[in-house]
Structures are given as structure tokens and as C-alpha cells.
Amino acid sequence: MAAGPAALRFESTVQVSKLQDLIHRSKMARCRGRFVCPVILFKGKHICRSATLAGWGELYGRSGYNYFFSGGADDAWADVEDVTEEDCALRSGDTHLFDKVRGYDIKLLRYLSVKYICDLMVENKKVKFGMNVTSSEKVDKAQRYADFTLLSIPYPGCEFFKEYKDRDYMAEGLIFNWKQDYVDAPLSIPDFLTHSLNIDWSQYQCWDLVQQTQNYLKLLLSLVNSDDDSGLLVHCISGWDRTPLFISLLRLSLWADGLIHTSLKPTEILYLTVAYDWFLFGHMLVDRLSKGEEIFFFCFNFLKHITSEEFSALKTQRRKSLPARDGGFTLEDICMLRRKDRGSTTSLGSDFSLVMESSPGATGSFTYEAVELVPAGAPTQAAWLAALSDRETRLQEVRSAFLAAYSSTVGLRAVAPSPSGAIGGLLEQFARGVGLRSISSNAL
Questions:
Q1: Is 236 a catalytic residue?
Q2: What distance in Å separates the CA atoms of residue 424 and residue 240, rounded to the nearest whole number?
Q3: Residue 122's pLDDT band (boundaries 50, 70, 90)?
Q4: Which contacts of 206-212 are long-range, i.e. CB under 8 A and separated by 24 or more positions?
Q5: Confidence at 428, pLDDT banded by 50, 70, 90
Q6: In 253-289, which positions are buried (b, 16+ CB within 10 angstroms) versus exposed (e)?
Q7: Which residue, 152, 256, 317, 424, shows the most beta carbons closer than 10 Å to its own?
Q8: Which SS3 state, helix, strand or coil, does residue 30 take?
Q9: Secondary structure of the chain: what % helix, strand, coil (to 5)?
Q10: CA–CA gap between residue 53 and residue 369 (Å, rounded)
Q11: What is the mean pLDDT of residues 324-335?
């Protein structure tokens, strides 16, 4: 961590060579070789993503495959032992091999200072053709992950989002069927992580898609915004549908608060999260669109549901740093007022606007550093409130840019032209792959 002249700046202390080595040795521990990967650095904490743990079928099959096609050697096992097809066939149990690969997975998690593991699977193990093809930390028989704080937060898979599309993209009132045979992972969150969120988690099976996504995002934000230095891992099964949904929402929410990627404009952060969080990590848009499973669209359309201050990481930070005040209106009182009750932030007739004009962030260039360095009191409060207002504007701009590009490429009802040709161009490539655009069509 390094301190700049105006604010604290966080830098990762990870050594690239050591990280590469741990990744190489641990990659077989997880489904499809999708290892734990740090993707966001926030307050010195690594927010990571991956797939779930590989089951014995995939682990043995992949180790035999790698051995066969590498000419009889697998670098991932260079300092352990060669794992041949004969070895796999003769073993009566999977404990020995699991100890090796999951041991490296745990070393990688510890190296990244990950404490919290959030599992989005609705199953304990993924079963196909009667075989357990994947597992998860919460059902590891040897309890290898007992030192981590495990959160089972089951969330519907991409197949459920066909219902979202069939309901004309209306998530309100859309409730997942938790009584299906394959759904066997209950929601499980340690009590000490939930007491401050004021959410009745016992009702999770009654929530519609909007409320469930909102509450899960609040939980993730509370973890990354906690006072400890612990990192976070988010995963589903393969890590390319539900995982990017929440990683992208986390990134955009923190960016809208001015806490990360502070130099990026709305169209630039949209390009980053679409290209990096979704497509670079393997989201199969072509396949999902062909099946009507529009979880990708849901993510960015959902931004309209997280614009309020209850999703702001700044709210928690302000509550911790503000001193006690005299009677009258408190900062919390003001935040609870509806926007129309506060008055316009640009009207000269508004008491609100008069204190904001001289405060940090009033011109839309708010940053976390600006709010933390000014003295407590009215200017500080005004800066924070300006940031919350700016949060809504920024998220709305990202959503509008996405809808415009998506409409022009994949095909939704008409919306305003996209302010960024880059986003449209990125989506255009995928639209052509799906066959919704001919090669001769002009890009946005």
C-alpha cells in the first residue's frame, strides 16, 4: 500500500511470478480448469472469481488427458508425482489426489488473502448422467476449506433467464422454483455477517429476481466494505454466467461511488466490464441468445434497481467517520428523504444546492479521496450527498449506453443512439457471430 500526496492509494503486494506458479499448480482443482483469479482490487482487498471445485470424474479425466497429450509429463505435477491413467484407475479413493490439487487451491486463496467464499450454486454437487461432475467447498468431505468463511447463496442459473425474456424482460414478480429435484443447496450465511443488513434471509425462496439480486449484492458489498483486510471469492459452477453478473454489478457499483476506476467515463467502464468481466472470462453470448437465456442483458438492465444510497459503499463509510451531532436534521434523516422532497441539486432556490456548490464532488468529479480529506460537518455531508446523487446519474448513463448498443446489435425496442461507438462495435462482433448481422453490415 502506498500513500499519495492527496489520498491513500492501495497497491497489490502480490508477486506475479509466485501468483503464476500457484495458479499453474492449482488450475486442476476447479471445474474446467477455471482457477481463482483476482479481478478487482478494493481497499487493498482482492475480489476474485473462479469456477466451483472439480469432482472426481473431471479431475481424474483431466489429469489422464493432460498426461496423455503432454507426452507422459504434466508440468502442474512437477514437484509432486506423475499422475497417470493407471494411477487414477487403481486408486480406491480420491483423497490423495484431492489433497494435492485442493491443497494448491487453498494456498492460492491464502496468498490472495481470501477469507470469504461465496457459492452461487443451487446444488451441492452438479450431477450429469448420474455422475457428480463438480463439487463445492461446502461439501468437501475432508473439510479442507474449514478455515474459510463459506457462504452458500444459491442463485438461479442462466436457464432461468429464459423466463425473464419470455416475460418481456420483467424481473419483478419472477420467482425461481426452489422445489425442483436438483436444487439441494440451502442458503447459509454466518449470522455475524448479516446482522447489519436488516434482511430476513429466511424468506429468500419468496423473493422475486429483483429482490434476490439486490439482497445478494448488498451482502457482497458489505463483505468488501468491511473493516478487515480479507478478500472475497465469488463463483458459480463454470464461472461464466452468474459469476460475471455479480462481479460486474460489484465493479459498477463501486465505480459509481467513485471508489475504483475513477478516471473512467460511463462508456469506458461499460466497455471494461463487458469485455473483461463477461467475454474474456468465457461468457457464451451466442449460445445464450440462441436459447433466450439473457442473463447478460439482465445484468445491465438491472442497474436501474441499484441507484439508491442503500447500495452505496460510501454510506457505510460516512456512518463510521461522522461524529455525533446536535439535534435537528441528521445526515441519515436527509438521506431518507425522497429526491423530490430534497429539492433540485441544481436549482438556486434549493437550500441543498447552496451547500453543494462549494463542496467536493459538486461538479460531478467526486472521488472517495475528496470526501475523506475534508473536515467533518456540513461540507462533508454535502460532498457525500452529492456523490450519492452522482451515483444514480452515472449508473443510468451506463445502462442507457448499454441498451442503445444492445438494441442496435442484438435487437431490442428502439432507444436513444449510443454515445460510444466502441461499445456498439464490441457487441456488433458478437451479433455477427450469432447471425443477427451480416458481415457487410455497418458497425455502430
A1: yes
A2: 21
A3: very high
A4: 206/175, 207/175, 208/171, 208/172, 208/173, 208/174, 208/175, 209/156, 209/160, 209/164, 209/171, 209/172, 209/174, 209/175, 209/176, 209/298, 210/171, 210/172, 210/302, 210/305, 212/155, 212/176
A5: low
A6: bbbbbbbbbeeeebbbbbbbbbeebbbebebbbeebb
A7: 256
A8: strand
A9: 50, 10, 40
A10: 39
A11: 40
Rounded to the nearest 10 degrees, how much is the dihedral formed by the CA atoms of 340, 346, 349, 352?
70
Is 158 within 8 Å of 288 (Cβ atoms)? Answer: yes
**Consecutive H or E run containing 215:** helix 209-224
How many Cα neighbours within 13 Å face the side chain of 171?
Answer: 22
C-alpha cell at 26: 492449482
pLDDT tens digits for range 78-99? 343 334 333 443 343 456 777 8
Q: What is the pLDDT of residue 42?
A: 95
Contact between residue 93 and residue 60 where contact means Cβ atoms under 8 Å apart = no
Digit-coded pLDDT (tens) for 137-187: 998 888 999 999 999 999 999 999 999 999 999 999 999 999 999 999 999
- Going by DSSP bridges, is the β-strand pair 231-235/149-152 parallel, antiparallel, or unpaired? unpaired
- Per the rule left: phi > 0, alpha: psi between -120 and 50, beta: everything else, 364 is left
Grid cell 449510443 in the structure block, residue = 418
203 or 439: which carries more pLDDT confidence? 203
Cell for 395? 449508473
Residues 6+ apart with CB under 8 A from 345: 352, 353, 356, 386, 389
As a whole number, the mean pLDDT across the chain is: 76
Instruction: Assess contact for 326 and 348: CB atoms under 8 A.
Output: no
Q: Radius of gyration over alpha carbons of the chain, in Å? A: 24
Give per-residue pLDDT as tens, 252-298.
999 999 999 999 999 999 999 999 999 999 999 999 999 999 999 99
**Active-site option among 31, 48, 158, 236:** 236
**Cβ atoms of 135 and 195 closer than 8 Å:** no
CA neighbours within 13 Å on the CB side: how many for 295? Answer: 26
Asked if 34 contacts 239 with a C-beta cutoff of 8 angstroms, the reply is: yes
Query: Of 394, 420, 436, nearest to 306 (Cα)?
Result: 394
